[in-house]
Backbone:
C-alpha cells in the first residue's frame, strides 16, 4: 500500500511538471519548434525577448536608424539566432540571442554609416563575449539576408494579424528603443496606456499558439 501511494504521488508530480513545461516551455524548446517551421513558436519567443531587443536598441536610437529600422533589425537578429542556434555551441539561447541581436543592429548601423558616406563616424565593433566571438554570421551574405528577411516577413505577418494597429505601433516604438514616456509623447497618450498596450501585446503573443488554427 505504501509503495502504491508513492507511485501515485510520483505520477502526480511528473504529470504536474509536464503540464508546467507545456504551459511555459523553455527558450530552447521554443527554438526547436521554430526551427521545425512553427511560426507560432517564434512569436512566443518575440514576446519573451521584447525587453532584450528594446534594451539593445535604446543606445543606438537616432544613430542613422529610425525606430522601424531598429525594430526590423532586432527581429531579424532574433530570427537569425533561432535559425542558427545549436546546443552544441555550449551556451544558452538567451546568451546567444543577445549577441546575435546586438551584432545585427550594429551591423545595420555600420551599413547606414557607409551609405551616408560618413567615414568620420567611428565604426561600431561586433560584440565579443568570453564564450567566444559570434560574428554577424550569415547576415553579411546577400542571398541569406534575402532569405531570412522573406521568412521574417511571414512571421511578422502572423504577428500583425494578432495585434491591432495601435498595438503594432506601440510595439515598433518600444522595440525601436523608445521609453514609455517617449512613446506616450509621440502618440499623445499616457504612459499607463503604453504599459497596458504592451501588456496586451505580450499576452497575445504568448497565447498565439493556443489560438492559431492548425
Residues:
Amino acid at each position: 500500500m505504501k509503495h502504491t501511494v508513492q507511485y501515485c504521488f510520483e505520477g502526480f508530480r511528473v504529470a504536474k511538471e509536464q503540464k508546467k513545461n507545456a504551459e511555459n516551455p523553455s527558450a530552447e524548446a521554443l527554438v526547436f519548434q521554430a526551427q521545425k517551421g512553427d511560426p507560432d513558436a517564434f512569436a512566443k519567443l518575440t514576446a519573451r525577448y521584447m525587453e532584450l531587443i528594446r534594451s539593445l536598441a535604446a543606445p543606438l536610437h537616432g544613430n542613422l536608424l529610425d525606430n522601424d529600422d531598429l525594430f526590423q533589425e532586432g527581429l531579424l537578429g532574433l530570427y537569425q539566432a533561432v535559425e542558427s542556434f545549436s546546443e552544441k555551441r555550449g551556451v544558452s539561447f538567451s546568451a546567444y540571442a543577445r549577441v546575435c541581436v546586438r551584432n545585427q543592429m550594429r551591423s545595420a548601423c555600420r551599413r547606414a554609416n557607409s551609405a551616408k558616406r560618413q567615414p568620420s563616424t567611428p565604426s561600431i565593433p561586433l560584440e565579443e563575449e568570453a564564450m567566444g566571438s559570434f560574428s554577424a554570421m550569415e547576415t553579411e551574405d546577400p542571398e541569406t539576408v534575402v532569405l531570412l528577411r522573406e521568412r521574417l516577413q511571414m512571421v511578422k505577418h502572423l504577428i500583425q494579424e494578432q495585434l491591432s494597429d495601435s498595438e503594432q505601433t506601440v510595439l515598433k516604438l518600444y522595440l525601436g528603443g523608445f521609453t514609455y514616456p517617449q512613446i506616450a509623447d509621440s502618440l499623445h497618450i499616457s504612459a499607463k496606456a503604453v504599459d497596458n498596450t504592451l501588456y496586451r501585446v505580450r499576452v497575445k503573443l504568448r497565447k498565439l499558439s493556443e489560438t492559431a488554427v492548425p
